[in-house]
Specification:
Order of helices and strands: HHHHHHHHHHHHHH
Number of domains: 2
Largest sheet: none
Distance between the termini: 145 Å
Radius of gyration: 48 Å
Number of strands: 0
Number of helices: 14
Length: 270
C-alpha cells in the first residue's frame, strides 16, 4: 500500500477517496498540498476543516517518507497510471470492497472520531454564524425603531391618547365613578374622560348595564372636569329635546304695550 492510499484509509473514505484524488490529478502526496483547500474539500466531499486536516496529515506523511519517496517518483507515477487503468476494469468494485473490509477496527474507530470532530466543528461554525445573523437582525430592528421615533419627533407626531388633553378614567375621578364602572366603561371602549363626554349614553347604559340617570350625572361631572382642566377646549353638550327658539323681541315689546301684533282681518267673515 502506497502512502497516498494509507492516507486515504486513515483520514478519508479509503478507496473511494483514493479514486477521487487520482481522477483529480493527485497521484501522490505532494499533489495533495498543491491544490487549494476548497478544491480538496470538493474532491473529498467534506468540509474545509477536514480538507485542511487532510493536507496537514499528507505533509507529515511526506516528511516521514523522506528522501526515498523522491527517488521512487517514477515508480509512483507508473503505479498511479496502473491504478487508473485498474479503476475502469470490471473487478474494481470487488477490489475496493476487499480493501475497505480489510481495514483494522482501530482505523475505523479513528475515522469515526475524526468525522465526529469535523461535524462538531461545522456545527459550531453554523451556530456562530446564526448568532451573528440574529444579533445583526436585532441591531437593524433597533436602528429602524430609533429612526421611526426620530421621524415622529421631528414631524410633531404623537399618540393621540398620550397628550395632556386626555384624562384616563379612574375610580373617584368624579362623584359616582367607581372601579367597577370604570372596568365596564373600558370594556365598552370608553377609556378616558373625553370619550365619556361624547359617548351615546343610551347605548352605553345598555352595554354597561348601568342606569341612564347615573351615567348622565357622571357625564355632567366629567364635562365640567374636562372644561376646567383644558381651558379653551370646546366640550360638546347633548342637544335637549325641548329646546325652543327665543321669541321675537319686537313681538314681545308689542305684547307688553297692549298692541296687536298684526292688523285685524276685514270682510264678512272677520
Amino acid at each position: 500500500m502506497d502512502a497516498l492510499a494509507l492516507l486515504c484509509n486513515l483520514y478519508g473514505d479509503g478507496p473511494a477517496t483514493l479514486r477521487r484524488l487520482r481522477e483529480a490529478g493527485c497521484g501522490e502526496l505532494a499533489d495533495v498540498n498543491r491544490v487549494s483547500v476548497d478544491e480538496l474539500a470538493a474532491i473529498l466531499q467534506s468540509s474545509s476543516v477536514a480538507a485542511r486536516r487532510f493536507q496537514s496529515e499528507a505533509a507529515l506523511l511526506t516528511t516521514r517518507a523522506g528522501k526515498s519517496r523522491e527517488t521512487d517518483a517514477v515508480e509512483s507515477k507508473r503505479s498511479a497510471a496502473a491504478a487508473s487503468a485498474a479503476i475502469t476494469a470490471p473487478s474494481v468494485s470487488s477490489a475496493m470492497h476487499e480493501l475497505a473490509s480489510s481495514r483494522d477496527p482501530a482505523i475505523e474507530r479513528a475515522l469515526a472520531a475524526w468525522r465526529a470532530a469535523d461535524a462538531a466543528a461545522e456545527t459550531a461554525d453554523d451556530c456562530g454564524a446564526d448568532e451573528f445573523a440574529e444579533h445583526d437582525e436585532r441591531a437593524d430592528e433597533r436602528d429602524r425603531a430609533r429612526d421611526r421615533d426620530g421621524d415622529r419627533a421631528s414631524s410633531g407626531e404623537a399618540d393621540d391618547r398620550s397628550g395632556p388633553q386626555w384624562t384616563p378614567l379612574r375610580p373617584a375621578l368624579v362623584d359616582g365613578l367607581d372601579a367597577a364602572l370604570c372596568t365596564r366603561l373600558r370594556a365598552a371602549g370608553v377609556e378616558n374622560a373625553e370619550e365619556l363626554v361624547t359617548a351615546d349614553l343610551l347605548d352605553l347604559s345598555s352595554v354597561c348595564e348601568t342606569p341612564l340617570t347615573r351615567l348622565m350625572r357622571i357625564q355632567g361631572h366629567v364635562r365640567r372636569l374636562v372644561a376646567a382642566e383644558t381651558p379653551g377646549l370646546l366640550v360638546p353638550h347633548p342637544r335637549r329635546a325641548d329646546a325652543r327658539f327665543s321669541p321675537d323681541p319686537i313681538a314681545v315689546e308689542l305684547r307688553e304695550r297692549g298692541r296687536p301684533e298684526s292688523e285685524p282681518g276685514s270682510g264678512p267673515f272677520a
